[in-house]
Amino acid sequence: MAPQAPDSAVKDDLLDDLTPQEQAELVERELKINLRGIISNLRNLDWSKVVWRNLIMFALLHIYSVYGLYLALFHAKWRTIFFSVVLYFMAALGITMGAHRLWSHRSFKARTPLRVVLALFQTIAFQNDIYEWARDHRVHHKYSETDADPHNARRGFFFSHMGWLMYRKHPDVIAKGKGLDLSDLENDPVVMLQRKYYLPAVVTACFVLPTAIPCIYWGEHVVTALMVAGFLRYTIVLHITWFVNSLAHWVGNKPYDKSIYPSQNSVVAYLALGEGWHNYHHVFPWDYRTAELGGLVNYNITCLVIDFCAKIGQAYDLRTVTPEMIGRRVTRTGDGTYASMTQKAK
């Protein structure tokens, strides 16, 4: 089974090395640009740990995406734009509903047809295979904001956003990842089939087909199709996913637990199909809604899709949290913003 709550005993040990100032920063921080701090960090950076392949690939990806944005605004056909938006939702659901809520947290169960579709959508997203994505995410929850957290927010906004993918993993991340029970993933034929054929599958699903379909069916220029439906769409999905690890760990209120970084961030929720209610999610990670409230008004598109799949028999055993349990936690550890937040949401 997926770990459903942080390992407090081990996590406390990992936090012992923090100074009182660093621990205080967990409660009070603000998102600001400090140029002197950035320059100082670059000077003190251990450049031997930089993953240069990833850094170069991300640099090229963003250059292509800027060109893709230009083509989208001035040259691409409307069908290509619409197709790119559809691919965005498919890839996003592959992450939010598939890799995250189904395979990382086991917050609901899905029948084989739905699991196959979600695995395909997750492949379009190109964010590592399901097995690796779920493993890293489980480590993130179990050891959140420690050196064992792959995208530890204590190491700065940029690191938690995308820097962690351009820097070698901390030894604790690797060690704790090896200690997790991943037997549920290893016994899932859909997960392991995708992992076995991931490289050819991801190249085909993320770039080849998104380029070929516009060219074949409505005569889009091959470069425009590749740059818009391929690179630009892929980059947008990446950043929106990364915002859950960065922005939702920096900005927002904390009605369920004021002592942790994850926050309620409506902007991230809107962009990431309901993944921005992050304070709730880290307190109750087994809830399939990843929020107390679902529905379109709360930007929880993923929850609506799961509910629909449940109605047609493809999703079942949807796990939630009782209002009584939520109320007790709000009273015990919340920051006092719960009443105003829920009144506004409803």
From TrEMBL:
<dbReference type="InterPro" id="IPR015876">
    <property type="entry name" value="Acyl-CoA_DS"/>
</dbReference>
<keyword id="KW-0275">Fatty acid biosynthesis</keyword>
<protein>
    <submittedName>
        <fullName>Delta-9 desaturase</fullName>
    </submittedName>
</protein>
<keyword id="KW-0408">Iron</keyword>
<keyword id="KW-0276">Fatty acid metabolism</keyword>
<dbReference type="Pfam" id="PF00487">
    <property type="entry name" value="FA_desaturase"/>
</dbReference>
<dbReference type="GO" id="GO:0006636">
    <property type="term" value="P:unsaturated fatty acid biosynthetic process"/>
</dbReference>
<keyword id="KW-1133">Transmembrane helix</keyword>
<keyword id="KW-0812">Transmembrane</keyword>
<keyword id="KW-0472">Membrane</keyword>
<keyword id="KW-0560">Oxidoreductase</keyword>
<keyword id="KW-0443">Lipid metabolism</keyword>
<dbReference type="GO" id="GO:0005506">
    <property type="term" value="F:iron ion binding"/>
</dbReference>
<keyword id="KW-0444">Lipid biosynthesis</keyword>
<feature type="transmembrane region" description="Helical">
    <location>
        <begin position="81"/>
        <end position="103"/>
    </location>
</feature>
<dbReference type="GO" id="GO:0005789">
    <property type="term" value="C:endoplasmic reticulum membrane"/>
</dbReference>
<comment type="similarity">
    <text>Belongs to the fatty acid desaturase type 1 family.</text>
</comment>
<dbReference type="GO" id="GO:0004768">
    <property type="term" value="F:stearoyl-CoA 9-desaturase activity"/>
</dbReference>
<dbReference type="InterPro" id="IPR005804">
    <property type="entry name" value="FA_desaturase_dom"/>
</dbReference>
<feature type="domain" description="Fatty acid desaturase">
    <location>
        <begin position="78"/>
        <end position="285"/>
    </location>
</feature>
<feature type="transmembrane region" description="Helical">
    <location>
        <begin position="231"/>
        <end position="251"/>
    </location>
</feature>
<feature type="transmembrane region" description="Helical">
    <location>
        <begin position="197"/>
        <end position="219"/>
    </location>
</feature>
<feature type="transmembrane region" description="Helical">
    <location>
        <begin position="55"/>
        <end position="75"/>
    </location>
</feature>
